[in-house]
Design a protein that fits this description.
Blueprint: H1 9-19, H2 24-31, H3 35-43, H4 50-60, H5 64-68, H6 73-78, H7 85-93, H8 108-123, H9 127-148, H10 151-171, H11 174-191, H12 194-210, H13 214-228, H14 235-254, H15 258-275, H16 288-301, H17 305-313, H18 323-339, H19 343-356, H20 358-362, H21 365-375, H22 384-392
Helix pairs in contact: 1-3, 7-9, 8-9, 8-10, 9-10, 10-11, 11-12, 12-13, 12-14, 13-14, 14-15, 14-16, 15-16, 16-17, 16-18, 17-18, 18-19, 18-21, 19-21
């Protein structure tokens, strides 16, 4: 059994092209994608890269999510995750209605513990746990924040909103992610926290990265850096500043702007040398390790796949690193290995991505695109390859 055998990204690109009565040549000219690259992507002969997907979406003026098929509705339904989305939307919608008289919130200290527990769950790859709990906690946190009207109350609510953003992003609901971010900003302003304001711009820039709108993404990175200048000097400020530069490096890489990508990466590396590993500061996982991980990503985004694989070869991941970040890293490595024709190594990295965080890997766009790229060559891969495809389209986020 194959995963999405008749509906990979190339097939969707072909369908979207025909719906607009465009030839392959016209799409190539419209998007700037080389004709040979575009036709091979449509045919499924090569995997759709993030750069190609973004260029196609921009050229045809459609959402990236439409091109890649997110959210993956059938799998979400089978995993019983789709029913968790509406309560989150409803919880986000009551942000400005004041305290709910029917809710008696617990002490702020308890809510703060729950906010951190949600962040930990997401970083552990436990998306369903976070999705199941965040709506109720947003409602409780909203009432608490309005009742207390304190900096701590608003920042706790902002943390709940951030988890809603994390869940929406990982499950492919881009509109919900944007709504969640708007709520983060709303609560952060009431908490008067410039560092959180800078982080909001970082998360917002990532949404534009995923949508292929790189210029706007870089403007948001710059705005975030300016916002952080308003905060007092602290390790926390340095960590968020460094993470903004990492975000800018990936945006630059995906835009194929090598100078900008490497400049951001170099500045992040300098800052990481002063902060050290700062895994739990806003749970951004910033530090020397994350800079090295981002170097792999940036090189892959620049289509320098051999260099990306080489950069990953001597990278040692700390044992206390979040499983979600480990899974994402192996997904990036798998993509680079596939393009260097190391098919067996690529598949092994996909297995590592799944092992680290099964729920996340199942809905990870890079995992799916890499699997689609390997599928045509599955005869050269282990027998377990097809079972991986069955898992991607199955009704469980756990390892089969």
């Amino acid at each position: 059994m194959h995963a999405l055998p008749e509906d990979h990204t190339g097939v969707r690109m072909a369908r979207l092209r025909r719906e607009r009565h465009l030839t392959q040549t016209a799409v190539s000219e419209l998007t700037g994608i080389p004709y040979s690259t575009y036709t091979k992507t449509e045919q499924g002969a090569i995997a759709a890269t993030p750069h190609v997907i973004a260029a196609f979406a921009r050229g045809l003026r459609i959402e990236v999510a439409t091109v890649v098929g997110q959210p993956y509705a059938d799998e979400l339904r089978a995993d019983e995750l789709d029913v968790l989305i509406r309560p989150i939307r409803e919880a986000l919608d009551v942000y400005d209605l004041g305290a709910d008289p029917d809710i008696q919130p617990r002490r702020l200290e308890e809510l703060e513990e729950d906010a951190e527990a949600l962040l930990v769950a997401v970083r552990a790859g436990k998306i369903k746990t976070a999705a199941s709990n965040v709506a109720g906690l947003i409602e409780e946190g909203t009432t608490a924040a309005h009742s207390l009207d304190s900096t701590e109350g608003w920042l706790t609510l902002a943390s709940f909103y951030r988890t809603a953003y994390d869940v929406a992003t990982k499950l492919g609901f881009s509109d919900l992610a944007q709504l969640s971010l708007a709520r983060v900003d709303w609560a952060a302003q009431r908490g008067s926290d410039a560092v959180l304001g800078g982080m909001y711009q970082y998360l917002r820039a990532l949404t534009y990265l995923r949508e292929g709108k790189f210029e706007i993404g870089q403007r948001l990175i710059a705005k975030g850096l300016t916002t952080l200048q308003q905060a007092d000097e602290s390790r926390e400020r340095e960590v968020v500043t460094g993470q903004l530069h990492l975000g800018g490096s990936v945006i630059g890489g995906r835009a194929h702007d090598q100078n900008k990508a490497l400049a951001h990466l170099e500045e992040a590396d300098r800052i990481a040398g002063t902060t050290g590993e700062a895994i739990k500061v806003h749970y951004l996982t910033f530090g020397p390790t994350n800079v090295k991980v981002h170097r792999v990503s940036v090189l892959a985004e620049l289509d320098q796949y051999g260099e990306a694989v080489e950069a990953s070869s001597d990278l040692i991941i700390p044992q206390d690193w979040p499983k979600s970040r480990i899974s994402h890293h192996y997904a990036e490595v798998a993509r680079a290995q596939m393009w260097t024709n190391d098919l067996e190594g690529s598949f092994k990295s996909l297995l590592q991505a799944r092992k680290a965080a099964p729920q996340q890997a199942k809905y990870h766009q890079t995992v799916r695109e890499t699997y689609a790229g390997l599928e045509a060559a599955h005869r050269r891969l282990p027998e377990k390859f097809l079972s991986y495809g069955s898992w991607l389209s199955s009704g469980t986020g756990q390892v089969a």
